[in-house]
Amino acid sequence: MKPKLSNGTIYKKTLTFSLRRFAFNFLMIILVAALSTGGFILTDKLFGQGLYGLGAGIIIGIVFVAILAHFFSYIFKAGQIAVMTKAVTEDQMPDDVYGTGKAIVKERFLTVALYYAATSIIKAIFNELGRVITKIGGSVGGNSGNAVGSAIHIAINVVVGFLCDCCLGYVFYRKEKSAFKATCEGAVIFFKHGKTLLKNLGRMFGMGLASLLVIGGAFSGIFYLIALQFQGPIMAISNEIKELGQNATENQKVFEFLSNPTYLSISIAVLLGIILWTIVHSTFVRPFILVGVLRNYMETAVEDIPDESEFSILEKHSRKYKKYKKKHPSEV
């Protein structure tokens, strides 16, 4: 009997999506850095107000990145989820992993607009299930209290993110159904098997926290050492912050803190470290966690595909569902 594909094998085989996504994100960081640096240098020389140019460059860079990401980066994440779903449900991997993933996404969503329309519905429905997730999380966490309640509340966004990815995988699996109908089935599956699906909570948060401390901490340290080599620009920015603080009526402690070159260097290093950690974690660590969560979700889903009579549970918890059902009754 052929051995079952392991989570590690699936992760390694789909790593091509992660590598392409990382390269794309790295180029986007360079773009934002170039625009913000150029804005600072230009306005500092022309008007002596480099901080404003820095801010303008960052804003322009973010706008460009958002536009480029909208049209190009989605294929990396969606394609990876599509192939992972195929692997955990069919127990096989295609020879051309990237080509297969891209083809599945394009076959399911003929345009970028259709993809984002479907994913927005998925996110809306699962975001509205916060109360349900909290309730189930409370039962998993044991005795409730303020500390447990706060932890569960913070955890909701992390859980919802994984549920959205699992539901997108289910949409690829149920290719004969409309994306909205498959999304509804995916949400009902969570309602029916929530406690079972959330058994991966420890893996989600344990690995997430470990990667933040190790990867985020390492990047922050590296950026701080780099910042020490550019004390001239740091001093210029801190002086401008100090001038702004003298005219500000609020947040004086923040201006005072950031006008100190040492604290400013640390703040920049930590901010850049967190940004890099977010990219590395979401690109490399999170997909590894997702394979196990997705396998658990799909094994449960395949064994118990909901019928339309069970969609009524969504009526109680999702305004997005009711609104879409009213507008597109033929798809439900």
Break the fold down into its secondary structure elements and pairings.
Blueprint: H1 7-13, H2 15-47, H3 50-90, H4 97-108, H5 112-127, H6 130-141, H7 146-173, H8 179-197, H9 201-227, H10 231-247, H11 252-258, H12 261-303, H13 312-317, H14 319-327
Helix pairs in contact: 1-12, 2-3, 2-12, 3-4, 3-7, 3-12, 5-7, 5-8, 6-7, 7-8, 7-12, 8-12, 9-12, 10-11
Protein described:
With 332 residues, this protein is an all-alpha fold. The protein is built from 14 helices and no strands. The two termini are 40 Å apart. Helix 3 packs parallel to helix 12.
Coarse morphology? elongated
Termini separation comes to 40 Å
Task: List low-confidence stretches.
Answer: none
Q: What is the rounded Rg?
A: 23 Å
Q: What is the helix tally?
A: 14
| Biggest pleated-sheet summary | none
- Number of extended strands: 0
What is the chain-wise order of helices and strands?
HHHHHHHHHHHHHH
How would you state the average pLDDT, rounded? 84
Determine the fraction of residues in helical runs and give it as a percent range.
over 70%
Per DSSP, what share of the residues sits in E-state strands of 2 or more residues?
A: under 5%
Give the structural class.
Answer: mainly alpha
